[in-house]
Amino acid sequence: MNHLSNDFSVDPMTINRAVREDLGLTSYTRTLRHLLTEDMRRKRLTRCKNSPHLVEG
Predict the structure, then answer these.
(1) Are 52 and 45 in contact (CB under 8 A)?
(2) At 26, is the secondary structure helix, strand, or coil?
(3) How far is CA 41 from CA 13, 29, 34, 44, 46, in A?
(4) Which domain of life is it from (predicted)?
(5) What rounded mean pLDDT belongs to the chain?
(6) Rg of the Cα trace of the chain?
(7) What confidence score (pLDDT) does residue 27 get?
(8) Amino acid 33: pLDDT
(9) d(CA 27, CA 34)
(10) Which residues contact 35 (CB under 8 A, 6 or more apart)?
(11) Within 13 Å and on the Cβ side, how many CA atoms surround 2?
(12) What's the rounded Cα separation, in Å, for the pair 34 and 23?
């Protein structure tokens, strides 16, 4: 959205409002997920298996 507001020389809130009200969309920022290696997955699995009291309700 900032790129659009810079390209058209308008306030970012104007672009945001137009997208929300006219198009019915919401803007968001993608969050980066942690990348798990196979070693990290194995460690996580063994820890979970060794700690069943953490998942019991």
Answers:
(1) no
(2) coil
(3) 42, 27, 12, 5, 9
(4) Eukaryota
(5) 87
(6) 22
(7) 77
(8) 86
(9) 22
(10) none
(11) 2
(12) 32
The candidate with the shortest Cα–Cα distance to 17, out of 9, 7, 5, is 5
Q: Of residues 4 and 41, which shows the higher confidence score?
A: 41
Residue 26: partners with Cβ closer than 8 Å, 6 or more residues away: 19, 20
Q: What's this model's pTM, rounded to 2 decimal places?
A: 0.45
Half-sphere exposure of 35 (CA within 13 A, CB side): 1
- Scan for tokens 């298996």, then name that residue: 49
Residues 6 or more apart from 7 whose CB is under 8 A from it?
none
The type of residue at 55 is V
Residues 40, 43, 49, 54, CA torsion sign: negative
Contact 26, 20 (CB under 8 A): yes
